[in-house]
Amino acid sequence: MSRSTLWRRAGAVLAVGAVAAHQYDTHFRYECFNRSMRTAVAAVQTVWDYKVVLDRHPDMISDIHARVARRWYNICCKNAGLYIKLGQSISMQNHVLPPEYAELFANLQDKAPTVSYEEVCAVMREDFGKEPEEIFAEFDKEAIASASIAQIHKAKLKDGTAVAVKVQKPNIRYQMPWDLLCYRVLVWCFEKAFDLPMYFTVNHVCESVSKEADFLCEATFTERARRDLVGTVPRVYVPHIHRDLTRRRIMTMEWIDGVKLSRHGDIAAMGFSLKAVMTTVFKAFAHQIFLAGFVHGDPHPGNLLIRPNPTNPRDFELVVIDHGLYVPERPEFREQYCRLWTAMVLTDFDELKSVCVDWGITDPELFASMQLFRPFKANKKAVHVAKVTRTDLLALQLRAKERVKALLADTSKLPLELIILARTMNILRGLNKQAGSIINRINLFALTAVEGLHAEEASRARKFRRASFQLRLWFIEAVYYATNLVSRVREWLGYSSSRFENVLETTMTQSLEQRLGFKVGVRDTDLG
User: Fold this and answer.
1) pLDDT, tens digit, for every residue of 280-324?
2) What is the pLDDT of residues 181-212, one digit of tens each?
3) 66, 91, 110 — which closes off a domain?
4) CA-CA distance, 300 to 219, in Å (whole number)?
5) Within-domain flag for 278
6) Which pLDDT tens digit goes with each residue over 419-458?
7) Measured between alpha carbons, how far is 342 from 476 in angstroms, rounded to an integer?
8) Any domain includes 55
9) Which segments of 201-351 are extended strands (E)?
10) Of 84, 110, 136, which residue sits at a domain end?
11) What gap in Å lies between CA 209 and CA 202, rounded to an integer?
12) Domain containing 14: what range?
């Protein structure tokens, strides 16, 4: 047999094998390999765009942002699953990422596809050994909502009680190991390509996401949140879990009729004050962060429902759902985080530095800026009072990339709680901005942080210190409202003016542009 014949036969065998592997991956493994390959190709193209093309053509920055954003948007839509969650997270980063990203990825908030009723039945049979009709008196075949890893069906128990049944999509258990492996590789590659420490977060993120796919864990988290919030924070409710009808991939919970927090018009139509609603939202999460030490990691508007209070329909109730992703805070971290916030708000640099040293952070000012989302200077007044000047911004931008690298130089001491807690804080900031910055979030968080530090009976001196702190915050709050009043008067007189949250966002975005080495951009539409 000639060598050319051998090569042809080998090529034919490889071609047939590749086709067979592709078909097997597509029809029996939910495209696990194909999805990973699409992601790998997109990653290589992204590094090329930002490391090579941008260096050669810096004037094409907007076009490059648009091209990369479209590439990853298409990847998220095609790969679905955890990629939808990734895309939704990107859409919430409108203060950091270029506007080309935020505008495009906002479309993913309602893009999660549903699976067929036959596939739902298959999951039911595997986890319960029964058909839905054998378990429930009624079971709607059409999903009423769909997220990245699961979808919700309305059903009724045998006694007629309405329930929501959360069913995990069958492809998730096959795709998740591949997706998390791909995530690890991508973060490692991006760390090397862009010379910024990122990989230290990988294990914690992967562990948290894996727990999110286990509905028995979510049921436990929900019950803990219910104990922490219901009856403790007024106007807050967490649905009841039916444990006997819950498995790893199926969770049955109390049915809730409500509207998403983002539907401001519907909330107003029900006769409820948006400011009162937002205050309740921030009080609930401040309680979790600074007092309970157990924090919801995904508070996007779809997970925060507003309904009339069942016992008093004239008042509202905030219902917190989807408790799959949580941040359990160690007691020492919760205490340190309370100290951090009180120090930042009162510009107590010695206390701020003390916390940062414990966490291996070498640049307290930069870290405080990242936490507060505004330039922070140790020699300035309290956070709401200090006027942000051009000199402040220039000082913050000086040696920005080197400062970020130095900030994360020793990640061994950095608390892992900060990784997902930062996500929660950013989403909450975004919710406040969307509502018109009607809540002084920094003031509210600081007051609750003081409660976290002085939760137990204290000495007379400590009580005096707490009262003194509250008085100082009341003064800061008065300045805050005066600033907003001036803004309203300027608007009424026809002058342009930005609200508090937007001023913070604009100034911080300018400094981030210098840190990242490319233009982030804030458009007029971002300031509404």
Assistant:
1) 999 999 999 999 999 999 998 989 999 999 999 999 999 999 999
2) 888 888 888 777 777 778 888 898 889 889 99
3) 110
4) 19
5) no
6) 899 889 988 988 998 898 898 888 889 889 988 887 665 5
7) 13
8) yes
9) 236-237, 241-242, 250-254, 259-260, 294-296, 304-309, 312-320, 326-328
10) 110
11) 11
12) 3-110
